[in-house]
Design goal:
The complex is a heterodimer of chains A (236) and B (298).
Chain A: E1 5-16, E2 19-30, E3 34-38, H1 45-52, E4 60-65, E5 68-69, H2 75-81, E6 83-86, H3 98-103, H4 110-123, H5 139-152, E7 157-161, H6 169-184, E8 188-192, H7 196-202, E9 205-210, E10 213-219, H8 220-225, H9 227-234
Parallel strand pairs in A: 3-8, 3-9, 6-7, 7-8
Antiparallel strand pairs in A: 1-2, 1-4, 4-5, 9-10
Chain B: H1 2-6, H2 13-39, H3 46-64, H4 68-90, H5 95-114, H6 119-122, E1 128-129, H7 136-158, H8 161-178, H9 183-209, E2 211-212, H10 214-217, H11 221-233, H12 240-258, H13 263-277, H14 281-289
Antiparallel strand pairs in B: 1-2
Helix pairs in contact in B: 2-7, 2-8, 2-9, 2-11, 2-12, 3-4, 3-5, 3-9, 3-11, 4-9, 7-9, 8-9, 11-12, 11-14
The chains are: A alpha/beta (236), B mainly alpha (298).
């Protein structure tokens, strides 16, 4: 049903000094999919997120979002086209209230922005805390707020960097359920996660990176049987 | 307000002078806070805004016989426009490097304005004495109006989405950028607005002094004093800098009159204690304690 490519990574190289964090990496992400991005520490997962969002620029290669080239674009331009991300180490605005954290990224008329912000706070079950500073939230709640921020500017492609790490199982389940609901509503997700259980249970596809190279790609069940991946990733 | 407007009808020149200074520093401290308090980019070159605008307006009045009311906004517009370029270049430098680069800009401009090469325009190190032909009352009303407008602008901005975007830059600039905020543009707008308002007060300041020279126009005191006032009142609050300016001008007046020699030492001591024990300032402290509501509009 969803076959259109929303994101195309084409032969991307990114080096830090002599080390290639991404080494001729290429893949496509389909619209409406949830893709897991896996690989050991230093495999290039976060670097890839930084390249997609324009925080870093590739040394060579091209990135396309919805068919348009986004290579070399500024982070805010890419965000406005519809790419949102959350960070592994949460980056919300601590000394601003929850409501302000959302309103600040909203576009359009004041009243509509306020309404939308309240809707999203209800969605992530934080509406009662709307006037608290974001720094007063628990780690897990901050992750939810961070996701709400991304939804606030209607990102279509959402990159989540370890969304399940460090939060309690109840909140983790709520978060994943929310991601599925948003996915049914048409959002595309790429999820970096170390917990293979999360990837296998929640992603349709997975891409495995090692030393900046794509070493496997496919449906989660296929990935699970990939010898090379198992060798690299689980040390077997 | 009505009381402040009617002051010239009954107050002595001493009180008028003190009020003029308070109002000038209210604009300086609020203008500094408008940019630095909200974005977190500490501007150590406030004196540059003040000096450049002060020079332009003073020279227009002294050498080109401009009417003061016309010379002031030209000075402020001039520094505002130049600030677009300065901001475009310097606002990509973060943290302490930005602060240092603004100090360097101020010092460099001070040297430049004092050189013999520019003497035909700036009068070099000799300075520019002039008489603008403005009464103390008219000057008082002008700076009162400007201070009032500045606080209104700060109020409007702090409670607006633009203000929130500036605060987001202060909180986490990269996150703000990946959330779709054009951080460079927002920073430049705030920087230029700060330059314009501060510059306008600077023009009035030197008209009031009837004199400007490089070391007077670009002195580091014109940068540090407003920063201390803003810190004292509450960085990032609407009324904090105005309160800080008022209290500090009084403290300054008392200390200076009573303890001329020790004055700078005591001033420095207060500054250190302030930063150690009172980093959020008077209003910030009161908000934290619940004496004042924790809303942006104060």
């Amino acid at each position: 049903m969803h076959n259109e490519t929303i994101l195309r990574i084409d032969d991307v190289v990114k080096k830090f000094g002599e080390v290639a964090a991404l080494d001729h990496c290429s893949f496509n992400i389909e619209q409406g999919s949830i893709t897991g991005l896996i690989g050991p520490n230093g495999a290039g997962k976060t670097t890839l997120f930084n390249l997609i969002t324009g925080v870093l620029q590739p040394d060579s290669g091209h990135l396309f979002f919805k068919g348009e080239e986004i290579t070399g674009k500024k982070p805010y331009e890419i965000a406005r086209r519809g790419v949102g991300r959350t960070y592994q180490i949460i980056r919300i605005f601590p000394k601003m209230t929850l409501l302000e954290n959302l309103v600040v990224v909203g576009k359009g008329r004041e009243r509509r922005v306020m309404e939308r912000a309240m809707e999203l706070l209800q969605l992530v079950k934080l509406s009662e805390k709307k006037d608290d500073y974001a720094s007063d939230l628990s780690f897990g709640q901050q992750k939810l707020l961070s996701l709400a921020q991304v939804l606030m500017f209607d990102a279509e492609l959402i990159l989540l960097d370890e969304p399940a790490a460090g939060i309690n199982p109840t909140l983790q389940n709520e978060l994943m359920a929310l991601i599925h609901r948003l996915n049914e509503g048409g959002k595309t997700f790429i999820i970096v996660e170390h917990d293979m259980g999360v990837i296998m249970n929640h992603c349709q596809n997975a891409i495995a990176l090692n030393y900046g190279q794509k070493i496997a790609e496919g449906s989660c069940s296929l990935i699970q049987q990939d010898e090379r991946l198992l060798e690299h990733y689980f040390g077997r | 307000m009505a009381f402040l407007v009617s002051v010239p009808f009954f107050a002595s020149d001493y009180w008028m002078t003190l009020l003029v200074l308070i109002l000038i520093y209210t604009v300086y401290a609020s203008g500094w806070n408008l940019f630095s308090g909200l974005t977190g980019y500490t501007n150590f070159g406030l004196a540059w805004f003040i000096g450049v605008s002060g020079y332009v307006s003073s020279l227009l009045i002294a050498d080109h016989k401009f009417f003061w009311l016309l010379a002031w906004p030209i000075g402020a517009l001039f520094v505002g426009i130049v600030s677009i370029g300065v901001g475009y270049i310097l606002l990509r430098i973060k943290g302490v490097y930005f602060a240092i680069s603004m100090v360097a800009l101020t010092e460099g401009t001070r040297e430049l304005f004092g050189t013999e090469y520019l003497e035909p325009i700036t009068h070099g190190g000799k300075g520019v004495p002039f008489v603008a032909g403005i009464s103390l009352s008219a000057l008082y009303w002008s700076i009162l109006l400007l201070a009032f407008m500045t606080v209104i602008v700060c109020y409007k901005i702090t409670s607006s989405k633009f203000g929130l975007r500036l605060m987001a830059i202060r909180e986490d600039e990269q996150a703000a950028e990946t959330l779709g905020i054009h951080t460079t543009r927002e920073k430049i707008i705030a920087f230029v607005l700060s330059a314009f308002l501060t510059g306008l007060a600077g023009a009035i300041h030197f008209t009031y002094q009837n004199y400007i020279d490089p070391s007077f126009g670009f002195t580091i005191h014109l940068t540090l004093t407003p920063i201390v006032m803003a810190l004292f009142g509450g960085v990032g609050t609407v009324f904090g800098p105005a309160i800080g300016a008022t209290l500090f001008t009084f403290i300054h007046e008392i200390l200076w009159a009573e303890l001329t020699i020790l004055y700078m030492a005591i001033f420095g001591g207060i500054l250190i204690l302030l930063i150690l024990f009172f980093p959020q300032g008077l209003l910030g402290w009161m908000k934290e304690r619940g004496v004042l509501p924790r809303i942006r509009k104060i």
